[in-house]
Recover the amino acids of this structure.
């Protein structure tokens, strides 16, 4: 099933004023409608997960889609959190597994799989939680996670303005058509300048409210770290978590855009594109 922008969680970041720092709240009112328009126009289809397809399974998947899980999890690969297949494998045959996992989902927390915390889900109805947990734990063992991205992925080489050569795991420009940026980079530009610029600065130039993300990447922040920070957030420091509002793909697109900006390959303002 695909994400669509009418999902109720699409608006969760905005719906809860407690989660939104003051500056953000003020500007948000004015630009929210326009921003949602751009999201609707560029609605993202994430790849469908294809586990067993009996009726209860579909039911659990629908419940998962109605929540924010897909921003951080996939069936068979690590995203921000472990794959569901890996979770099923770890708890297979263990008494009390359903209760343990249900508690993890409801209360969130870190340390079972790594350092990154999972957000709590106190509002998930018991019936939803039970169905989701039963579905996850019943997933068949499919061995190791497949690599996060195609292992044999191409490398894209660019020469920067200062003459340095860089190699990226994704293209910035449509092949043979620089400076026309790819669809991903262009959508990253749109997403960034709809949701991130208010604190991180127009066109990824930094501001007094939040770090310059170009500097974060220059200092070695990986795409996985970027994705985790964007999805989990750091509310105590004023960084909202975007899980349930932005998809994994959308956040990866903002990363590609910021990386293009950092390297000086993508200009400020609306980059040349076919869109
Ligand atoms: C903001 C990102 C994020 C969201 C949203 C999220 N998770 Fe997680 N999830 C994680 C991380 C990170 C971990 C690993 C936590 C740890 O190491 O203890 C995790 C762990 C888990 C586990 C393993 C729990 C255990 O006890 O071992 C399950 C199952 C799970 N998540 C399911 C879900 C479901 C279902 C949803 C939606 C209702 C969801 N997650 C939403 C990031 C997320
Ligand atoms: C309401 C203001 C606000 C918005 C909007 C916002 N951020 Fe942030 N962001 C912050 C703050 C503040 C920090 C620093 C948090 C900290 O120090 O822990 C931060 C930190 C980050 C970091 C980690 C940077 C580092 O060097 O550690 C990433 C990555 C990030 N944000 C991505 C995003 C993305 C992507 C968006 C848009 C989808 C976004 N942010 C929108 C306020 C915001």
């Amino acid at each position: 099933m695909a994400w669509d922008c009418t999902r109720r969680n699409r608006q969760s970041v905005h719906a809860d004023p407690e989660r939104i720092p003051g500056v953000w709240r003020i500007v948000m009112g004015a630009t929210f409608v326009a921003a949602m328009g751009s999201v609707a126009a560029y609605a993202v289809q994430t790849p469908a997960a294809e586990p067993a397809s009996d009726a209860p399974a579909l039911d659990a998947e629908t419940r998962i889609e109605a929540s924010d899980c897909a921003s951080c999890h996939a069936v068979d690969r690590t995203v921000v959190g472990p794959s569901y297949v890996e979770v099923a494998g770890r708890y297979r045959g263990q008494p009390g597994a359903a209760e343990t996992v249900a508690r993890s989902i409801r209360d969130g927390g870190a340390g079972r799989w790594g350092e990154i915390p999972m957000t709590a889900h106190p509002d998930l109805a018991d019936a939803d939680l039970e169905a989701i947990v039963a579905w996850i734990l019943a997933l068949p063992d499919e061995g190791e996670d497949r690599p996060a991205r195609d292992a044999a992925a191409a490398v894209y080489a660019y020469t920067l303005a200062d003459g340095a050569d860089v190699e990226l795991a994704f293209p910035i420009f449509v092949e043979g058509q620089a400076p026309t940026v790819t669809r991903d980079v262009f959508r990253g530009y749109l997403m960034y300048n709809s949701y991130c610029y208010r604190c991180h600065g127009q066109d990824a130039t930094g501001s007094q409210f939040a770090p310059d993300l170009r500097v974060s990447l220059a200092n070695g922040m990986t795409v996985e770290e970027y994705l985790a920070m964007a999805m989990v957030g750091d509310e105590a420091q004023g960084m909202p978590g975007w899980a349930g509002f932005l998809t994994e793909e959308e956040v990866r697109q903002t990363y590609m855009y910021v990386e293009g900006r950092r390297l000086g390959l993508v200009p400020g303002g609306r980059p040349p594109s076919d869109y």
